[in-house]
Amino acid sequence: MTFNAAALLLLIAGLALIGWIAGRARSNLLAGRAQAKLHSRPQYHGWYVALWLFAPAALFLAVWSAVSPGLITNEVLASEAAKELPAFGFERGAILSDARNVAQGKQEAVRIAAATPLVKPYADATHRYAWIGIAAMLALALAGGLYAFTRIKPDFRARTRVEKIVMLLLLLASLVAILTTFGIVLSLLFESIRFFRLVSPTELLFGTQWAPTSGAPQPDTFGGIPLFWGTILIGAIIAMIVAIPIGMMSAVYLTQYANPRVRKWVKPCLEILAGVPTVVYGYFAALTVAPALREFAVAIGIPNASTESALAAGIVMGVMIIPFVSSMADDSINAVPQAMRDGSLALGATPNETIRQVLIPAALPGVMGGILLAVSRAIGETMIVVMAAGLSANMTANPFASVTTVTAQIVKLLTGDQEFDSAKTLAAFALGLVLFVVTLLLNIVALRIVKKYREAYE
Amino acid sequence: MIMTQEDLTITDPKMTAKGVNVFYGEKQAINDVSIDVGTDLVTAFIGPSGCGKSTFLRSLNRMNDTVAGAKVTGRIELDGEDIYAPSMDVVQLRARVGMVFQKPNPFPKSIYDNVAYGPRIHGLAPNKSDLDGIVEKALTRAGLWDEVKDRLAESGTALSGGQQQRLCIARAIAVDPEVVLMDEPCSALDPIATAKIEELIHELRGKFAIVIVTHNMQQAARVSQRTAFFHLGTLVEYGKTTDIFTNPKQERTKDYITGRYG
Amino acid sequence: MAIVNDHTVKAFDEDLNRLRGLISEMGGRAEQALLQAMTALNKGDLDLAAQVVRDDKKIDALEAEVEQLAVQTIALRAPMADDLREMIAALKIVSVVERIGDYAKNIAKRVALMDQTRSIEAIPLLMSMSNIVVELIHDALDSFAARDADLAVRVTVRDKNVDDFYNSIFRTLVTFMMENPKLISESAHLLFVAKNLERMGDHATNIAEMVYYVVTGGRMEERERGEQPEDGAAEQEQG
Question: Is residue C4 part of a domain?
Fold first, then answer.
């Protein structure tokens, strides 16, 4: 007898179904007997009983599944047979897991001889805890079900209760996302604080030398400016120079000129571009675009052209962002009321004048929001820059030179064998925090702009 | 179709439609409509929803061209000139036949730029002071000048609904059109704003030929001299407004204006 | 012109029906007042005459009620076309019917002033004339109720008979007065009665003209009233 959570879940679901039927029947019966009108329809009484039956038991099941293995192990360790186990380390763990697997029927026989005496205590403990768990769960389910069942009366407000419970469940679901974000921020923050104990925040934010691997004789330097500049050069300047005009123009074409058939084909194609994994873009940037650009740079006589250029990464990143800008611009242009367009055309403006003088200005706030979102995506982008932009922290405006970005450096700092308490590794978290804060701010500003703009036409 | 009175004959029509049909794809929205629009008159198109009155109005300045699948047959003339002829430039046509829409649709620009939009794209004002003059004249004619002269730089969308609609009328007349088409210009406005627009229409009569589509029969009765009743895509009756509202000749017209419409 | 369709707003039809009901009641009362007044005159029945005078107040009250209802309907329902014409006609018709009632009252009041009139030979003529007038009023109001323009035209045609009667009674009474100077006062009263009847006929014609306007939207042409000799229909009506 083992503790099979899935089967038990089915069991209480079945009980809940019975509870639902019983609750519904009882409410009907009571209503009939008392000649009273039910406050809530019978289904709600059924749901009330079912939820009371199911929710506490399911919650217990979840908790019990998590804690019972620990309890079982503790009990085994307390047994006579466990006294002969090695004190610590890998061997002890292997013996325990071997014994557990045999006891729970996952393997036929022990692989390590020392595990044999532990099999029986393990089996006993597993068996006992399974029974305890099942008994407790059933008790909870029945208690909950009975409690709910006895509360059914014609004037009992089952509907409001059920709706409240459902609302709580929904709240719980949304809290998961919020709490996760919160947890991420916290973990970033704690690691960053550890880093800032070693290196001052001002050095990270305003220092101009980035050399975390220099080692002795010079100390490591953690000046973030070259990284920030690289990020801005690639993500906010080159990528946007590519993405904004192309994205805008394609949006204008798709919304204003394309006939429905063309639009039906082109729009999904653009959206496929957004679904291409970034690593594929990275290959494209590193293997196709970068060498071509280097040859071009050499041909026009730029001396220190590198195969890892800001331009290659920026252009490919721009291409990646095009669908993003295009679909935001498309939405904003479409959100400009048809009446506005008609108004301009009716004054004798050509479609071209209408687009330039009415539609784009009217759509501009929405487009700006889209661009800011695109920028925040671009600066958080990792694969392309890791593969194409290089890792040397140069402060240069030459787009053919190799630069590096915050994300690329984070990858570099965290890959390979690293001890998790050196300034080098911790610097990755601090950089992550900076990136997080910047993209968060960009997102907030962008969403604000988009929202404000949307309200203008409602 | 029946002309209700002999003296209906419009001697100098601004626009003339002869046997006009409008199709949206397979569907025929307008069936064989012939009508004269008088130069110094306000002409009202009335009829139940979906009767084609707006569709017909939009064919008078070729706004139907912007609708995919719309096709117009028959002949529509402006001063005797076929507006659907290949030689007719639709941009020029719309400068001559302006339009005001159901919902006020000022551009998200300043009040001044809204009115100056048309004159600018048509190059009507060689310099700033000329443009100022045009803007002031249009706003004055639209009865809005006194209300907005101190805040021309404010956004047109910040005005009230009625002011916005008068701004749209000012915008339309700023290019000095010959005909102004109004597609239910008051349906989004309250009664006071509506009254101001109606007064404005009254003021503008004689300066432009005005064609107004309205759901509100009382409004047609108040502002127009000629009324055309459309039903199911056909022109049922066209005549003097006074006759249409006191003594319509067609049973369908009578049923509609007396409120016996199915 | 039959009313095929009801108004989309049913309450409008209810208002119209109530208005028509009131007008028809008022017309009935006016006819009755005339009949009673003439009977009282014929028989010298002072009680009946007094009753006619009393009943006239009801006609006045009905007029006020119709006016109020019509104004209310115009304000609230904004009637158009034939509905509008009917409202306006209703207002005019009730004021005409009220006048008819007043003439009947006027005749009734004269009964008390004439105790020796039974011998005057004009009385039977007056009775015949009043019968025609009652018919005219009746038909005029019927044509309103039935929206019958043809009947309305016939009413205006027949008004000529009333005028002929009046002329003949006038001559008879003038001759009688010359022969019987003692009865000049009574005869003069009878002359007024004849004049009242003639006016009532004109009022019936007015009602008919209003009905014609309601139904057709146009004014009745002179020739339709049969005033041109070559109009055969008119000749026939007189026969």
Answer: no
In a domain, C5, yes or no: no
Contact A348 B108 (CB under 8 A): no
- Does C102 fall in a domain? yes
Q: Do chains A and B touch (3 or more CB pairs under 8 A)?
A: yes
Average of per-residue pLDDT across A251-280: 86
CA distances from B183 to A80, A271, A346, B34, B83 (A): 95, 39, 12, 19, 20
Do A57 and A5 touch, CB atoms closer than 8 A? no
Give per-residue pLDDT as tens, C177-199: 888 888 888 888 889 999 999 99
Q: Which of A73-87, A143-157, A166-180, B232-246 has the lowest mean pLDDT?
A: A73-87
Q: Which residues on neighbouring strands pair with residue C230, listed in sequence order?
A: none
| Cα three-residue angle A301-A304-A310, rounded to 5 degrees | 105
Q: Which helix (H) or strand (E) holds B182?
A: strand B179-183
Question: How far does CA C51 lie from the centroid of its chain?
Answer: 19
For residue B236, pLDDT beyond 70: yes
Query: ∠B120-B137-B198 over CA atoms, to 5°?
Result: 110
Q: Which residue segment(s) compose the domain that C76 sits in? A: 10-238
Rounded Cα distance between B141 and B65, Å, is 30
Judge whether C21 lies within some domain.
yes
**Domains of chain A and any CATH numbers:** 5-156 (no CATH), 204-456 (1.10.3720.10)
Mean predicted confidence (pLDDT) in A260-283: 86
The lowest-confidence range among A81-95, A269-283, B148-162, C62-76 is A81-95
> By the 8 A CB rule, do A230 and A310 touch?
yes
Amino acid at B157: T
8 Å CB contact of B260 and C6: yes
By Cβ distance, the residue of B247, B255, B259 closest to C217 is B247
pLDDT at A390: 75
Contacts of B122 in chain A (CB under 8 A): 348
Q: How many CB atoms lie within 10 A of CB C83?
A: 22
Q: Which residue has the tokens 């003038």?
A: C174
CA distance A171 to A175: 6
Contact between A110 and A102 under an 8 Å Cβ cutoff? The reply is yes
Interval B163-190 mean pLDDT = 91
- Tokens read off for B30: 């307008």
d(CA A397, CA A389): 14
> How many cross-chain Cβ pairs, A to B, lie less than 8 Å apart?
70
Collapsed DSSP state (helix, strand, coil) of residue B74:
strand
Task: Identify the band that residue C237 occupies on the pLDDT scale cut at 50, 70 and 90.
Answer: very low
Q: Which fold has domain B7-106+179-257?
A: Rossmann fold (3.40.50)
Domain with residue C101: its CATH number is: 1.20.58.220
Q: How far apart are CA A118 and CA C96, in angstroms?
A: 121
Condensed to tens digits (0 to 9), the pLDDT of residues B81-102 reads 999 998 888 888 999 999 999 8
E strand or H helix at B77:
strand B70-78
- Sign, CA dihedral B195-B197-B198-B204, equals positive
The DSSP code for C117 is G
Domain ranges of chain B: 7-106+179-257
pLDDT band at B188 (very low <50, low <70, confident <90, very high): confident
pLDDT at B5: 45
Helix and strand numbers (H, E) in chain B are 10, 11
Please count the other Cβ atoms lying within 10 Å of the Cβ belonging to residue A299: 9
CB A152 within 8 A of CB A28: no
CB contact under 8 A, C7 and B248: no
How many domains does the structure of chain C reveal? 1
Strand, helix or coil at B82? Answer: strand
How high is the pLDDT of residue C167? 93
Q: What proportion of chain C, given as a percentage, has pLDDT over 70?
A: 88
Closest residue of B to C217, CA-based?
Answer: B247
Is C229 a residue whose pLDDT tops 80? no
